[in-house]
Amino acid sequence: MIENKFLRIKKLIPKNVKILAVSKNQDIYSIKKLYKIGHRDFGENYIQEMLYKYKKLPKDIRWHMIGRIQSNKLKYIISFIYLIHSVQNIKQINIINKIASKNNKIINCLLQIKICNNKNKSGITYQEALKILENETLKKMKNVKIIGIMGMASLKGGKKIHHEFSYLRSIYNEFKNKYGHYILSMGMSLDYNLAIEYGSTIVRLGTIIFGYRKKLSNSI
Predict the structure, then answer these.
(1) Residue 209 and residue 176: Cα distance in Å, rounded?
(2) From CA 101, how far away is CA 103, in angstroms rounded?
(3) In which element (H, E) is residue 42 found?
(4) Fewer beta carbons within 10 Å, N or C terminal of the chain?
(5) Helices (DSSP H) in the chain: which residue ranges?
(6) Cα–Cα distances in Å, from 117 out to 86, 122, 155, 185, 188?
(7) What is the model's pTM?
(8) How confident is the model over 84-138, as pLDDT tens digits?
(9) How far apart are CA 130 and CA 41, in angstroms?
């Protein structure tokens, strides 16, 4: 059962590490199972799917955007989004800030850092992240806040994964000391235990909790 899988994992990981249940392509019923046992943090890759689920599910769920940002659709989720994990440039931040200002909200975001060579995993370099954080325009924004970084390691990297997590942790340590960042989002179903060893504060777990993803209705 989904609930048992989740509770077993939660029991074995440190209390300071948050589990983000990746509910992409999972049905409403599956999400409700975790909600009923007290879990509130769910991650989605696509705004349209997140919006559909937001309308169907309790409003105290904390929704995390973990997929590529669709700038033209951000206006649909800013009123309720809890954390955006995948910011990659100042243009996206500016759009988030403008929409958040209209909604009288402050939106917390993470910068997505590229730590592996997989073409399917996006992100920015350390230098690009530093340039964003030192941007004078960002410093003047009142409705968006960068509170940490996110990264995705190689799927089957062996020692390479150790290097990738270590590298992201070193960036996190620097940014934490310099900018006060407190979130390090790394680790998924296949590597979350290792990510925790390297200091992850949020692990993004989908398959290990829900099983393999389902194909949802095209009506979403």
Answers:
(1) 30
(2) 5
(3) strand 41-44
(4) N
(5) 2-12, 28-36, 47-56, 90-102, 126-133, 136-140, 159-179, 192-197, 207-210
(6) 17, 9, 11, 18, 17
(7) 0.94
(8) 999 999 999 999 999 999 999 999 999 999 998 877 778 999 999 999 999 999 9
(9) 28
Alpha-carbon 176 to chain mean position:
18
Task: Report the distance separating Cα 84 and Cα 108, nearest Å.
Answer: 7
The answer as to whether 84 is a domain residue is yes
Does 196 reside within a domain?
Answer: yes
Query: What separation, in Å, do the N-terminal and C-terminal C-alpha atoms of the chain show?
Result: 25
Non-local (6+) Cβ contacts of 218 within 8 A are none
Residue range of the domain that includes 139? 2-10+17-209
For residues 56 and 74, is the Cβ–Cβ distance under 8 A? no
Decide if 73 is inside a domain: yes
Domain count, the chain: 1
What are the residues whose beta carbons fall under 8 Å from the beta carbon of 135, sequence distance 6 or more? 90
Give the CATH number, domain containing residue 142: 3.20.20.10
